[in-house]
Amino acid sequence: MKTVAAEALHRRLGGTDEIALLDVREQGVHLQGHPFFASSAPLSRLEAMIPALVPRRATPIVLFDDGGAHALAETAAARLAAWGYSDVAILAGGLAAWRAAGFEAFSGINVPSKAFGEFVEHHYRTPRIPAAELKALRDSGTKMVILDSRPFEEYRRMSIPGGIDAPGAELAFRVHDQAPDPDTLVVVNCAGRTRSIIGAQSLINAGIPNKVVALKDGTMGWELAGFQCDHGARHRAPPPSPEGAAAARAAAARVAKRFRVKFATRAQAQAWLRDPARTTYFFDVRSPEEYAAGHIAGTRHAPGGQLVQSTDEYCAVKNARIVLADPERVRAVMTASWLVQLGWRDVFVLTPEGRDGFSGWPVARGKPQGAAAYGAIAGGLPAWRTIAPEDWYRRMRGQSDFAAIDFATSLHYRERHVPYAWWAVRARLAEAKTFVFNPRALLLTSEDGVLARLAAPEAAALWPNAEIAVLAGGNAAWFAAELPIEKGLDRATTTNDDVWYKPYDHPADALKQHMQSYLDWEVALVEQIKRDPTIRFEAFD
Question: Domains, the chain, ranges and CATH?
Answer without folding.
Answer: 3-108 (3.40.250.10), 115-254 (3.40.250.10), 259-364 (3.40.250.10), 386-480 (3.40.250.10)
